[in-house]
Predict the structure.
Amino acid sequence: MPHADSSYFGAANGNKAEVYKQVLEQAQGLVTGQRNWVSNFSNVASLLWHAYAALPAPSSSVNWAGFYIRQDQYPSPSGTSTTDPSVKKNLWLGPFQGRPACQEIRFGRGVCGAAAEKRETVVVPDVLEFPGHIACDASSRSEIVVPILSNGETVAIIDIDCAEPSGFDDEDKKYLEELAILLAESCDWA
């Protein structure tokens, strides 16, 4: 059963790897026995938010942590998924922590859409230098987006923004990619 203590990140002495290991361990515990992506992503968004706050700068300057879900992964009103190939692939806003955000992003647009379309992690040290960057929060300066893949297709993305340039590195990429695999395997996808 989820417990608020899951989001307590004690003194990590600035050790990002240790905090990420705790995120992965806590995420595994929170998703066990729960296949619903809304529940799982909501808890993990909270974990990430609290984890970054426990770290020194630039990690403590994370100002948005959450998810976008591929449009056809949402159930239709009839309860079935919509997988019409003529429909343009879009990402819809999912669970997150931070300021209100863009509600819909087309595959290929902005950092999120680029990662979703390429099916690979995109790390942007300065979003002002990224062609086509979508500025949901003008205070964001760097971003990392990690696709969540199921059967080789992007079903969702992890999106983390930082208010400082160069807020993310290879260590962030490594652990967020591990988290993406955990979430892909722990949720039911249409």
Notes: The two ends are 25 Å apart (CA to CA).
